[in-house]
User: Fold DnaJ ERDJ2A from Micractinium conductrix.
Amino acid sequence: MYSLFLIPFTLWKLSGGSGDEAEAVKTWSSKSGKGEKKESMWQHLRTVFTGRMLLAWLAWALLLWYVKYSMGSIENFDPFAILQVPLDATEAEIKRAYRKLSLVYHPDKNPDPKAHNYFATYIAKAYKALTDETSRENYLKYGHPDGPQAMTVSVALPEWFFSKDKQTAPLILLVLLFGGIVTPLGMAAWYLMGTQKFVGPNQLMEETLLLFMDPRYGIKASQALGRLPETLVCAMEFISLPTPSDQGPAMDELRKTVLRLHPDLKDKSAFWKRRTSVLKVHMLLLAHLSREEIPAVLQKDLEFLLTKGQPLVREMLGLSTAPRIQPGYGWLTPTVGCIELMQCMVQAVPLESKKAAHVGKSAESPAALLQLPHFDKETLRRLTRKKVKALPELQQMGGDERAKVLKECGLSASEVEDVETMLSAMPTVWVSAQCVVEAEELDDEVVLTGDIVTCRIQVMLTRPSHMAASFDPDSIKGKAALAYAPRFPAPKEESWYFLVADPATNAALAITKQNLLQAEAIGARYAANWSAKHNTPAVAAVGSNGSAPGGGKSGGGKGEAPPNPLLAGTKLDPFAANGSAEALDSSIEELGQTFELKFYAPLAPAKYDLQLLCMPDSWVGCDRAVPIKLRVDGATRADREGRGRRAALQRTEESEALMAGGDGSNVDSDAGHEDEEGEDYESEEYGTEESGDEGSDGEASDDD
Assistant:
């Protein structure tokens, strides 16, 4: 019984537990180098086999030893072995063996009661079994001199438990009640309460979902990036986080750091009067986003905040996109804010530097530069003096020029190398989107109110590292790409969110989460083909837009390198006719990874300026906003009956011939007939016509 608990629990701990911790252990073991893998495994084993775990296994070993050496063996009755004669022994040999043993164990020869008991139970019975013909036949046939035996069942309980003494009856009753009923039911209830408190795909506590939906703490329609941490820190996972007394000095130090970063919090008493665990998590988040040094005693709490915070923010994102606006839209502001919060947590970027940037133009905000390694506000001020105010300006520099500028801003050679590594890994997405009506494929799309609209999306992802001579496009394999996130405590898979939004009404029409590994593989192939097409020299790390690889400015003359197409803002469009035809060979059928988003058309007829927002959860300044024009017409009664404008656009040559009566066929439906005199429809929506049938009153009905 003890093994049924101890062995599965140990295996569960060795696998890394559950949820994000287990996934992190798997990712580390598959992505780390050999040395790092051994060190990580050794550290993991040390964390699993603590003093308590070793004591538990020591107790298991002692129990095993006790059971092995205290268990009585079940002896089979073997008369030949008792009398010490062979199986083919004659009757005379059996009698001699019996007389020999009688001299030792017979009561007349040995007064010991044990010898008397052994003689009567074994020796005499064995002699009878071998000298009596029936008994001997039963033994040889059934293994017992008395013939076939009934199965006996023993209970592994002490003898006093079956005592007939009335004084022990209450004790036995209590043991049966608590040991057989109350204790098992209590353990089952404890287990079920412990396992069922985590719900949903993100394995969050049930109380957390209730808090996120509470009007006081939960998601609101106008809750932007700056206010989302107030909801995040109210999760039950953070409320129940312990704060031992030895963290007191570290909490005071962290409080001073937060007040230095955010002086406005000094007068906000409500911020400091919250539960200690909630306050600790909020201060850790603010300090992490500002890249401040965290006390060592609080490092584990920070790791828990960042690793558990990602699924918590994803749950907030799901609540933001839940249908609240007719005909089934979510809230746009908190949706975008949740994705931006994930970006800031992964790259350690202050919220105040990110919240002012618009999606699609976030590369121009200070946050895009602050995500680079070793960058802070002082580095930004020095870059501003060098006429570098945004990330694209830094990316478009040549490698030598950029290194020179960064060194003049105070970065060392190793720090510059870290910046170059991150810039080479930064993704650029190329997106093409088209909205069509799901039910009918029309050349001239007619979108009516309430239609299900399908947004077909085609995506290609490129990185500057794809232009390196040593890069192999076939090396892009696995489940997902890992983001370059030196400030995040565990490996982070790179995911992308695609959102159809209506900024005018704060509506999130549809959203999907995608892994763009296929889009990146196609993008790497595109980059290789583009380089071969234009004979572009290899790029060491980050290419240049309008500059030769290596730092020199390119004027587009003979022998100079063409612009690098892998950076956003270039004029080259891979999805245009001139963009794909010159770079791809016939082996690639489609340029980009394709998927669809479906949403209901707005209920009000109008022209809508929608946007397709493409946002990563691990990068700042890499999102895109693609405009989508959508005209929605009102559905008339003729449209609902299949006789409106959409029906006219769907007519084929055959249907037109039937309408004209060219083949003499008789069509029952009145939606496709014209009278013999060639009269036109009176309604502008082609919904009514003058009836030429007998019995008609000749009056046209009014359509909506």
In short: The longest strand covers residues 452-462. The mean pLDDT is 78. The radius of gyration is 40 Å.
